[in-house]
Amino acid sequence: MQLSNKVKSVKPSSTIALTAKSAEYKAQGLDVVAFAAGEPDFDTPDHIKEAAILAINQGKTKYTPAAGTMDIRKAVCDKLEKDNGLKYLPEQIVVSNGAKQALVNAFLAIINEGDEVIIPGPFWLSYAEMVKIAGGVPVVINTRKEDSFVVDPKDIEDAITPKTKAIIFNTPSNPTGMIYTEEAIRAIADIAVKHDIFVISDEIYEKLIYVKDKKHVSIASLGPEIYDRTIVVNGVSKSFSMTGWRIGYTASNLTIAKLISSAQSHMTSGPCSISQAAAVAALTGPQDCVEEMRKAFEKRMEYIYERVNAMDGLSCLKPEGAFYLFVDVSGVYGKKYNGKPITSAAEFAAYLLEDKLVVAVPCADFAAPDYLRFSYAVSIDTIKKGMDRIEAFLGKLE
Ligand code: PMP
Ligand code: GLU
Q1: 309 lies in which domain range?
Q2: Could you list the pLDDT tens digit for every one of the 398 residues in the chain?
């Protein structure tokens, strides 16, 4: 029997697979050091958990409207106005099962079969597969290390065809850790308006910035024409250490919001009612927990950056945001592990795991085959242990 060609073309998520593998090794008692998932190691703050417990005790255990409760949509509107200078009505917000579903919804709402979506690479691996799920064609354009992996507007213009429907970008970026300046974002906005294409703006790491003179700018705030063409995607997973609660959202023009809400009403309905109540507490409650976690990530970033950059054959830019160190390993190509030459980041990662039980994410699926991604959303002790092992691994390469 013929199965769906569209779904067959979708690759499984290697970040999710590697994370599951690390957990499996740990369950077997192996002393694995995992830099795999981009998932904060902190517990969800207490006031957020208490709001969830209260919601259960108050019987808020029923279906909610498909787009989310009025409480959470209002909380999202207030957040977007306060943090990003964006004015939305609750009707323009759809709350979903994580930013992941919000992104898929965004693609489903705008893509017709064969429409192209421009994705500046290196990019978070799920974007390309999500575009395919929606029937679109991912068009990857490469950014350069010397441009801090920020897309060159000329490369966008060159990639635009009559089929181009949208561009997606992510700042601060997973996996590069770089931040787009307002000037770079304005250039994308100008192109989108000029060519009448949509922008999907993934802002999930907006609170995790480590450079004083760089602040997060939402592209939707740069004028009414780009506001109308942008679907802002955000959520609580990273800022509030709430990955398992599965709450993300889109903010868009009313027409798109209605399409997203309608599609979601058939696919999943509203996300978990208890998680929604918890996310309201996260968005409207004290924000010092966000800053405390950001500070902890910054310390870890400084440490892992120094350690990796001091290693022969490895190089990386200093991360400006998010919680990933994006490491060029091509400097070790040609060296041998147990007689086998290393020719790609994937091989480096496989040998490192075999020899030292250290998990890093090979970035071929992120359009960066010479790079490994290290998530430093783990404790300093874990980072130290992992770095010591990598140093020992490099020392034994011939
Ligand atoms: N966007 C980016 C860039 C991410 O790294 C992630 C992490 N999974 C997501 C979206 C999805 O986040 P969520 O856990 O809220 O689905
Ligand atoms: N976004 C995180 C990562 O890139 C979580 C795993 C995933 O959803 O891909 O590792």
Answers
A1: 5-43+289-396
A2: 999 999 999 999 988 988 898 899 999 999 999 999 899 999 999 999 999 999 999 999 999 999 999 999 999 999 999 999 999 999 999 999 999 999 999 999 999 999 999 999 999 999 999 999 999 999 999 999 999 999 999 999 999 999 999 999 999 999 999 999 999 999 999 999 999 999 999 999 999 999 999 999 999 999 999 999 999 999 999 999 999 999 999 999 999 999 999 999 999 999 999 999 999 999 999 999 999 999 999 999 999 999 999 999 999 999 999 999 999 999 999 999 999 999 999 999 999 999 999 999 999 999 999 999 999 999 999 999 999 999 999 999 99
My answer on whether 134 and 216 are in the same domain is yes
Our answer on whether the CB atom of 40 is closer than 6 Å to any ligand 1 atom is no
- 129 CB near ligand 2 (under 6 Å): no
In a domain, 271, yes or no: yes
Helix (H, G, I), strand (E, B) or coil at 204: coil
| Structural domain ending residue among the three candidates 249, 284, 319 | 284
Task: Name the closest ligand to CA 236.
Answer: 1
Of the candidates 125, 212, 126, 123, which has an alpha carbon nearest to the alpha carbon of residue 171? 123
**CA of 175, closest atom in ligand 2:** 4
Q: What is the domain count for the chain?
A: 2
d(CA 258, CA 243): 26
Q: Is 129 exposed, middle or buried (0-12, 13-18, 19+ CB in 10 A)?
A: middle
Instruction: Among 258, 284, 310, give the residue marking a domain's end.
Output: 284
CB atoms within 10 A of CB 338: 10
Judge whether 340 lies within some domain. Answer: yes
Q: Is the domain of 270 the same as that of 314? A: no
153 and 279 part of one domain: yes
Rounded to whole angstroms, the Cα distance separating 231 from 100 reads 14
Distance of alpha carbon 206 from alpha carbon 188, whole angstroms? 18
CATH number of 270's domain: 3.40.640.10
Judge if 104 and 203 occupy the same domain: yes
Q: How far is the CA of 162 from the centre of ligand 2 (A)?
A: 32
Euclidean distance between CA atoms 202 and 190, whole angstroms: 18
| Whole-structure pTM value | 0.97
In the reported structure, the alpha carbon of residue 144 is separated from the centroid of ligand 1 by a whole-number distance in angstroms of 23
Q: Whose CA is nearest to atom 1 of ligand 2?
A: 38
